[in-house]
C-alpha cells in the first residue's frame, strides 16, 4: 500500500533553453528530458518573439508533454524563469498580475500557462550556468537553435 501518491511519481530530469536571433526576432526553444533509461528531445520556434518568451515556452512545452504527474527537476540557465518561479510569481498572482510598480507583468499569459503546468507536477528548480559545459544544458541550447532555424524557415515548431 502506498503511503503517498508521490511514491508513484516518475522522476524526470528536464533541461530547457530558449534562443533568439535579435530580441525580438526569430526564436526557438528546446527541451531535453530524461527519466530512467528513456530520453526525449523537443524543439520549436516562432518567427517573431523574444528570448524570455522562448525560455518560458521551453519549460511550458516540456511539462505539457508529460502525460501524468511527475516529480520534475527543471534545469534552466534563465534567471528570468528561475526568479519568476521562485521569487516573483506568488506576488504577481496576489496583485492580479501587476508588478510592484503597478505595471502589467510582461508575458503574463505564459507565466499563467507555466503556473498551470507546474500545478500538475512536483517541480523543483535548478539554475545552471549557460554555455559552461553542462551536457543537458548544451543539448537544450542546440535544440533551441534548431527551433530558431525552423522559425526562420517559416515553419513554427
Summarize the structure.
The chain is of the alpha/beta class and about 160 residues long. About 40% of the residues lie in helices and about 30% in strands. Mean pLDDT is about 90; it is low at about 1-5.
Structural features:
157 residues, five-stranded mixed β-sheet, disordered N terminus
Written overview of the protein:
The chain is of the alpha/beta class. Helix content is 38%, strand content 30%. A 5-stranded mixed sheet has the order 3-2-1-4-5. Helix 1 runs parallel beside helix 3. The N terminus is likely disordered.
Secondary structural class: alpha/beta
Mean pLDDT: 92
Overall 3D shape: globular
Give the uncertain stretches in residue-range form: 1-7
User: Describe the biggest sheet?
Assistant: 5 strands, mixed
Helix content: 25-40%
The SSE order reads: EEEHEHHEH
- Strand order, largest beta sheet: 3-2-1-4-5
Number of strands: 5
Task: Provide the gyration radius in Å.
Answer: 16 Å
Task: Work out the strand percent.
Answer: 25-35%
Give the termini separation.
Answer: 43 Å
* Count of separate DSSP helical elements: 4
Amino acid at each position: 500500500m502506498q503511503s503517498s501518491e508521490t511514491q508513484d511519481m516518475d522522476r524526470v530530469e528536464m533541461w530547457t533553453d530558449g534562443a533568439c536571433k535579435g530580441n525580438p526576432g526569430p526564436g526557438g526553444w528546446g527541451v531535453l528530458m530524461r527519466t530512467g533509461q528513456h530520453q526525449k528531445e523537443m524543439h520549436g520556434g516562432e518567427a517573431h518573439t523574444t528570448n524570455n518568451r522562448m525560455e518560458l515556452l521551453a519549460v511550458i512545452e516540456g511539462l505539457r508533454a508529460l502525460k501524468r504527474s511527475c516529480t520534475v527537476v527543471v534545469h534552466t540557465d534563465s534567471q528570468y524563469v528561475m526568479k519568476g518561479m521562485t521569487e516573483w510569481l506568488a506576488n504577481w498572482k496576489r496583485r492580479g498580475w501587476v508588478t510592484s510598480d503597478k505595471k502589467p507583468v510582461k508575458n503574463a499569459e505564459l507565466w499563467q500557462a507555466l503556473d498551470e503546468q507546474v500545478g500538475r507536477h512536483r517541480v523543483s528548480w535548478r539554475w545552471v550556468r549557460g554555455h559552461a559545459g553542462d551536457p543537458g544544458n548544451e543539448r537544450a541550447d542546440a535544440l533551441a537553435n534548431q527551433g530558431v532555424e525552423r522559425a526562420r524557415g517559416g515553419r513554427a515548431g
